[in-house]
């Protein structure tokens, strides 16, 4: 058996004939930065997310960093986020001059626990960054209410949540601004690096647009110092092709998740992810919890079923954040998830047969591990 965790080759085989002529035209024209495909992608992605403005940038990390800089984050300013995310979330806060402050997550949805937020707010708090982890929107209504009460902005880390919905609203349309990643393995992935900022705030859109291009709105007229954080035409052209297929790919992921949940619903020793009230996740990842996760994963790998870990070490326990001096036990739910979470194969082209094989393999590995642990 060989079931990959992710198979991008299948996706590209299906749409290569649409992408290659666009790339050939770009090569012919020699216009690689900005241009009609970048503008087209911004327009189409804004529409898909139900937002007024979208600003294409070089990566999801650029998107986060430029939003924080545009919001005026400064030295000593605190931003509340979660420890069970990719480090880009907190790198962007730190690199914009702020300081991440962690709150724990809920054990069922793996997302920010709104009830933990108030205790983390200080006079230096400027904003909250919920992460729509694995493609499931965080519980935004209470988060937005708390933010409004304390005069804070909310930036959605929607890197994993293209087209996800929360009470009828799309991920990326609920906060002050949002960041999306088009890293190749994401639900909407470039053939390289790219990302997107979405916002309903015209001023924020204009500022991030300048920041991504050395602080200029007109060539060589720099209103401020910015960055080289642009999205290139080759990526934008490929992303426009892929965006057309994203609703169908998302539907396929939802069907896969439904099948996983049905087949694993009664599996002893396997906890499947809960779906938060009012959310319609897009299943970037399908993450279950098991005891003896590392042994289970090794057994699965040995059987040719490839799984992933998201994420094996929560951010507050990473070496990079040793200076924060936050010890083990500070965020028990996130820590428990880092020991128990196992990401099963998930991509649109996955077959029902493969899902059934994964479930059988998982149940077998969990059973064997239980026997060995006795
Ligand atoms: C939750 C989260 N935030 C931010 C990022 C950063 O995106 P990128 O890799 O495009 O910089 C990623 C993806 O890698 C992510 O998963």
Describe the structure.
- With 374 residues, this protein is α/β, with parallel strands linked by helices.
- It folds into 2 domains: 8-103 and 110-240, 3-Layer(aba) Sandwich (Aspartate Aminotransferase, domain 2), CATH 3.40.640.10; 246-373, Aspartate Aminotransferase, domain 1.
- Helix content is 40%, strand content 14%.
- The protein is built from 10 helices and 14 strands.
- It has helices spanning 8-29, 36-49, 60-70, 88-95, 140-150, 202-211, 233-264, 293-302, 332-340, 352-373; strands at residues 53-57, 78-81, 99-102, 125-128, 153-157, 165-166, 169-170, 177-181, 195-199, 216-218, 221-222, 279-280, 286-289, 341-344.
- Strands 1-9-8-5-4-2-3 form a 7-stranded mixed sheet, with helices on both faces.
- Strand 2, helix 4 (88-95) and strand 3 (99-102) form a beta-alpha-beta unit.
- Helix 2 packs parallel to helix 7 and helix 8 crosses helix 10 (352-373).
- The chain is globular.
- The mean pLDDT is 97.
- It binds pyridoxal-5'-phosphate.
